[in-house]
Amino acid sequence: MFVDRAKIEIRSGKGGNGAVSFRREPFVPEGGPDGGDGGKGGDIVIVADKNLRTLMDFRYKKKYAAENGQDGMKKKKFGRNGQDLVIKVPQGTVVIDEKTGLVMQDMVEDGQSFVAAKGGRGGKGNVHYKNSVRQAPNFAEAGTEARERTIILELKMIADVGLVGFPNVGKSSLLAVSTSARPKIENYHFTTIEPNLGVVHIHDTSFVMADIAGIIEGAHRGLGLGLKFLKHIERTRVLIHVVDVSGSEGRDPIEDFEKINSELLKYSESVARKPMLVAANKIDLIGEDAPGYLKFKEYVESRGYRVFPVSAPIRQGVPALLDAALAELQKALAEPEPEPEYQYFDFETDDIDPDYREVYVAREKGAYVVTGKQLKKIFDSTNFNDFGSLRYLYKYIEKKGAIDKMIEMGLEEGDTIRIFDYEFEYYDEY
């Protein structure tokens, strides 16, 4: 099965906590703090690999997590950094942040990589909190929390040459005789959902060809699975437009040709500008002298396209078509591809959280509840068996104006203040 889209959850490693430790040496009964820093959490790194062809692996595994940083240790020893987790994706994969819908990275080159989720920073050990007033700090900094996000992987560079056209015009037959692929070929009036891929071996070289699912009118608006099919086309370099020139389905070949081209143009001008060859298939049913074929050929050539009369099942005209496709592909590869028009994810803004230092107060079930992101980090760093550490937490809340807010809301002595899972009673002289 060809898988071209997957949604996965990624989680970087949490930063290790700083250590609370004191020197314990002979003849030094009251040694100073020597708690080391925690290690950095591992990153989630996405890497493009040209040897991968599908997103099949992500169909079965949906969650990926990097290693947490190790906690700091005594004697000022740093905790070990968490190991990065490398996720390999096929070259041509577009990585999208689900929450914003913005493109995080377009994985065009083999070996291209980026950090999709940064690991948390390690917390500082208690050695950093010693000062002239606080000689023996009994608390340390907690490591920064892991970064979690859901990302969408879309594989769009699926082939060098793509076969496009209405269902049942002979694309599967052309793929079968041109490559080692063995698609199921029947007289279907509907289309398969996934593209079939095959390798064309020609003149001591090769290229990948894809039978892309048939397009219907309105595909650019998402009718049927139109947008899905058009995205397959977007990253092929050369198109072969297969048309049933015999009219065996009772349709007009010129109308079919125009309808497909119209859908490509409405979806994307860059897709419509791709090099295109036209395969006039089923020519054996009418012959190259038939008025209908000559009319079609004249019309298509007047639009600037080259027409190749073929009969896929008996390989009539197929070698000439493949030679022309290879020549167009080599020209396309020699020219840099235009940059796709994406709205990109802003990593700098993502690292800046304007809400980080805000402290919020609410009244819930008879208690005053205080929350905040930086507050959570300080809370996790608090030693609740140490008065100085508790005092530091309280002073932070007071400095942020949370006490004044609660007094405005009616806070009185003896009332309960809850900070995450810790509760205490409020007193003025606290």
How are the SSEs placed, and which strands pair?
Elements (H helix, E strand, L loop, with lengths): L4 E7 L32 E6 L7 H4 L2 E3 L19 E6 L2 E5 L5 E5 L5 E5 L30 E8 L5 E4 L6 H8 L17 E7 L2 E7 L14 H8 L4 E7 L8 H15 L1 H4 L3 E6 L9 H12 L3 E4 L8 H17 L12 H5 L8 E5 L2 E5 L1 H9 L5 H13 L2 H7 L7 E4 L2 E4 L5
Parallel strand pairs: 1-3, 2-4, 9-11, 9-12, 12-13, 13-14, 16-17
Antiparallel strand pairs: 1-8, 2-7, 5-6, 5-8, 10-11, 15-16, 17-18
CATH architecture descriptor name of the largest domain? 3-Layer(aba) Sandwich
- What is the percentage of strand-forming residues? 15-25%
How many helices does DSSP assign?
Answer: 11
CATH class of the largest domain: Alpha Beta
- Helicity, in percent? 10-25%
The ordered H/E elements are EEHEEEEEEEHEEHEHHEHEHHEEHHHEE
CATH superfamily of the largest domain: P-loop containing nucleotide triphosphate hydrolases
How widely separated are the two ends?
Answer: 66 Å
C-alpha-based Rg, rounded: 32 Å
- Structural category: alpha/beta
Regions with little confidence, pLDDT below 50 for 5+ residues: 183-192, 216-227
Mean pLDDT, to the nearest integer, reads 85
Protein name: GTPase Obg
Subcellular location: Cytoplasm
Biased composition (Gly residues): 32-42
InterPro entries: G_OBG, GTP-bd, GTP-bd_Obg/CgtA, GTP-bd_prot_GTP1/OBG_C_sf, GTP1_OBG_dom, GTP1_OBG_dom_sf, OBG_GTPase, OCT_dom
